[in-house]
Amino acid sequence: MTRGDSIFSRRTLILWSVAAIAAFVVALYFMGRGDGNTPDLTGPTVASRSALGYAGIADILRQLDMSVIGSRSRARSIERAQGAGVLVIAEPRLSPSTMTVGRKLLDSSAVLLVLPKWDGVASQTHSGWIENAELAAPFMASLALNLVEADGKVQRGPAPADWDRNAIGVAPVLSAPMQFIRSDTLKPLVAHGDQILVGEVERKGRRIFILADPDVLSNQGLANPVNADFAVALIGKLRQGDGPVVFDESLSLVTGSGPNIFRLLFRFPLLTGLVLGLVAVGLLLWSAMPRFGAPDAPAPALESGKRGLIDNIAGLVGFAGRRPAIVARFVDATIQDVARRLHAPPGLAGRALTAWLARVGEARGAKLDPRAAVERADALTRAKRGDAAALVALARDINQWKREIINGPERYQTTR
């Protein structure tokens, strides 16, 4: 395959890239959106045991052999509460676009509408707890009231010491600021003067109770046993026979939003994995940055020319471990060449020849004794894998001796 070849065509690569990016974006959307089937453990739901939840009253009602259902489907809530059941619309967070949907819930025969009052922030350290609670904006309670009563007003103020009217029979205990309703059309069931805590509306045989302050029904209010008695009596006044108590949670603030993967990534212990992952990606990008662009052409396996041939032969000789033998042959060849050029007496060989060349070299001022060079070559040959530095030094010394004995010391230095 040449450098210009590619496994896929340019069009195929573009299509696959677009598809991968689209899949990644969709995955991010669903991870951030959360799971709608996951119960809310901190808001106004029967699964929540936080200060703002209704798990307490749900447990009490079940102990009294009442059927309690938490529903996150509006259609299912109406269906389950039909007949002798009670539909509790638990602190709905409405907007102008959801008012019509909210009014459809009022078609049940018995409805308890609980106006919203608090906003809570989930705890970072304790699952199912809230970090703190703040008063919700008053218009949120007003929107919920407008589902039933358009002319009523929601206000907050000090809790009264007693109640002028109480059709429930049990006097609830509230702390400031108490949330109440002022209305000329609501029938007050529990009120102090014009401050209505529980009001009633009857429409075509349907009974609708409005609880202005959720503190008598939520977990934090049930810490006072009187409020628990009041909550049971309030629901019992609406309930007929053995019908279920259905808590509709479809319009709550954070109804079953489920875990948000992005928030979890920035919390311990997933935060540690996120940091390590980012470090790994950074190191990968750092190591890959010099590789961007077209790859360099690979070097040829064997270079052409004399220099390449010599280098390849030297590499093979070194790999075979024959360097000492090559240097010993070089020393012997140099001695024979010098003897020929100086016209050594015929018949001289071996030690006799090196002795004659040593006397000639001494007379001509050569520094090296050829007999010592031969002994060094023999020692390196016996060592088989001689020291590379010693081999190079011997070759250099014998070559310098050849120049000095032939040309003389002074002439060698000037032509060096």
Question: What would you say about this model in short?
Answer:
By secondary structure, the chain is α/β, with parallel strands linked by helices.
Major beta-sheet overview: 8 strands, mixed
| Number of E-state strands | 12
Secondary-structure-based class equals alpha/beta
Identify the CATH architecture of the largest domain: 3-Layer(aba) Sandwich
Helix/strand order, N-terminal first: HHEHEHEEEHEEEEEEHEHHHHHHHH
CATH fold label of the largest domain? Rossmann fold
Strand order of the largest sheet: 1-12-2-3-11-10-9-7
Q: Please tell me the overall pLDDT.
A: 81
- Count of runs of 4 or more consecutive helical residues: 14
What is the 3D shape?
A: rod-shaped
* CATH classification class of the largest domain: Alpha Beta
The gyration radius over C-alpha positions equals 50 Å
User: Fraction of residues in helices?
Assistant: 40-55%
Number of domains: 3
Percent strand equals 5-15%
How far do the termini sit from each other? 53 Å
Low-confidence blocks of residues: 253-257
How does this structure look, described?
By secondary structure, the chain is α/β, with parallel strands linked by helices. The protein has three domains: 55-258, Rossmann fold (3-Layer(aba) Sandwich); 261-289, no CATH class; 306-414, no CATH class. The chain is 44% helix and 15% strand. It contains 14 helices and twelve strands. The chain has helices spanning 10-33, 55-63, 74-81, 99-104, 138-145, 225-238, 261-265, 270-288, 306-320, 323-341, 350-364, 370-382, 388-407, 409-414, and strands at residues 68-71, 86-90, 110-114, 118-122, 130-135, 153-157, 165-166, 178-182, 187-192, 195-203, 206-211, 245-248. Strands 1-12-2-3-11-10-9-7 form an eight-stranded mixed sheet. Strands 4-5 form a two-stranded antiparallel ribbon. It has a two-stranded antiparallel ribbon with strand order 6-8. Strand 9 (187-192) and strand 10 (195-203) form a beta hairpin.
